[in-house]
Write a structure and sequence with these properties.
Blueprint: H1 2-5, H2 8-14, E1 42-45, E2 48-51, H3 64-84, E3 88-89, E4 95-96, H4 101-109
Antiparallel strand pairs: 1-2, 3-4
Helix pairs in contact: 2-3
Length: about 110
Amino acid sequence: LQRLAKRATVGLARVGGWGSNGSGDIFMAFSTAHEIPRDPETSVSDDKPTVSQRIPVLEDTSINALFEAAADAVEEAIYNALCMAETMTGLGGKKVEALYLERVRKVMEKYL
């Protein structure tokens, strides 16, 4: 899970972020995978208690698609936050205008 969460930086880099010292980038990952019991059943063999559990895992060689998907998801989330934000007025009446998407489209047409 940690390895997957680290790929968020790739998505950030795709949109121009480079993780400066004061950027404050924080990436969190949560899993709904198998729960490992606190008090698993134990057995005794050769006078030593043993715990046995079977948990399916993904092979390292198969994880590249998940790494790419994690980067894609972060990139898309950033674009979505920029393009779908609304004009806001904050503390002290400070106003931040939403992006004018038509203007962005015209600029991007020059590069596509």
